[in-house]
Amino acid sequence: MQLPSPAKLNLFLHITGRRENGYHDLQTIFQFIDLCDTLEFTLTNDNQVTLTPDIEGVATTDNLIYKAAKLLFPHRKNSTSGIHISLTKQLPMGGGIGGGSSNAATTLLALNTLWECQLSLPELADLGITLGADIPIFVMGFSAFAEGVGEKLQKVEPKTPYYLLLKPDCHVSTGQIFTDKYLTRDTPPIKMSHALELGGHNDCLEIVIKHNPEVEEAYFWLKNHGDAKLTGTGACVFLACESFLEAEKIQQNTPKKWQSWICRGFNTSPTHTALKEWVEQHQN
What we know:
It catalyses: 4-CDP-2-C-methyl-D-erythritol + ATP = 4-CDP-2-C-methyl-D-erythritol 2-phosphate + ADP + H(+). Keywords: ATP-binding, Isoprene biosynthesis, Kinase, Nucleotide-binding, Transferase. By secondary structure, the protein is of the alpha+beta class. The protein has two domains: about 1-155 and about 265-284, Ribosomal Protein S5, domain 2, CATH 3.30.230; about 160-265, Alpha-Beta Plaits, CATH 3.30.70.890. Helices cover about 30% and strands about 25% of the residues. The protein has helices at about 65-70, 100-115, 120-130, 135-140, 175-180, 190-200, 205-210, 215-225, 245-250, 270-284; strands at about 1-20, 25-45, 50, 80-90, 145, 150-155, 160-165, 230, 235-240, 260-265. It starts with a strand and ends with a helix.
């Protein structure tokens, strides 16, 4: 089984409070984009999880893909089932677009099918959130207005424009941003209808650009072309465009020191679309 593992954008990100355990309450809208990693799953009978290629600086047992697979071990129909997973990486790490979380969710979805675990999507999401707050959105597979730490999801259908996405040459530490004493943590909650009609801002932006001059430069460069936004805690910034041609025109003038992609917004995860097709194929 081969599945795409898409990135996400935070169309806005408000931090409405901080919990005693250090986690933050937030409001955001998640939307998928068609920039994807690819994961290939090959069933084995060796009761093992193997993963290739090695990612520099990340031990296999620390990789979210491996951890997600191990979470499903108790739920396998056949207790000797194993899996070999091959990852083709496209999504930049530390970009705020959810690459690691998406990989973990894709693994949960794939192995739930291949190992015949028969868990529901909410059950998979509950498992996933033990590994990361962004995993449930990728498991559920629909664009959502999210609250709590990102796990309370209400389905929404925002516009699906073309986006120009820029990645400055830096890695933003999420932990550093969320522990900064100057981070805004008291933005008043808004209603979902307000978020869809009027949008919002990203409370992390000011702190991210304070610590990361490369993000500041890319953000203000893109802002010259429209309503540029930061996704998550960065480092990626993005701009919604009226058409592919508009995005392409801006991309052609983008400084070469930044990675850039033109991508399309999607309100259904490409993982779910591909998994549904695979299941239909193999049922016939």
